[in-house]
Amino acid sequence: MKIGIASDHAGFAHKEALRAWLATLGHEVVDYGCFDEARTDYPQWIRPCAEAVVKGEVERGIVLGGSGNGEAIVANRVRGCRCGYAFNQETAFLTRSHNDANCIAIGQRIVDIGTAKEIVQTFLATPFEGGRHIPRIEAIDA
Hints:
It is globular and about 45 Å long. It has 6 helices and 5 strands; from the N terminus they run βαβαβαβαβαα. The chain has one domain (2-141): Ribose 5-phosphate Isomerase B, Chain: A (3-Layer(aba) Sandwich), CATH 3.40.1400. It has a 5-stranded parallel sheet with strand order 2-1-3-5-4, with helices on both faces. The model has no long low-confidence stretch (mean pLDDT 97). Helix 1 (12-24) packs across helix 5 (113-125), helix 2 (43-55) packs across helix 3 and helix 4 packs parallel to helix 5. By secondary structure, the protein is α/β, with parallel strands linked by helices. GO terms for molecular function: intramolecular oxidoreductase activity, interconverting aldoses and ketoses. It comes from Methylomagnum ishizawai.
């Protein structure tokens, strides 16, 4: 799978660890930054990743920050990006299966790297259920 990934300084360590781990699993990872731990504003990195998801340049997006909340907000401002906020496997499963999320936000200050890997693995493996959820997704995207 081709996956976009982006973070600010507060999510940088998790971004780097996830990027390397995903590559070992055979995924192609496109890094939209940031590229070091120097203080930076997350919209400049998160928006390009969300835009790439919407344009189909990557199949899924992963955005990271201190809490993940601001990153989810920025990603969701890009029309067509449905970014779920996840802090455990259940939230990752539900945002994929019920909300057809094409992007996920994770907070480095909220979850350890082991949990972040579990979240990402669940997010990538879970299909959208469709059915009763389709009208909701259509309403979100309208």
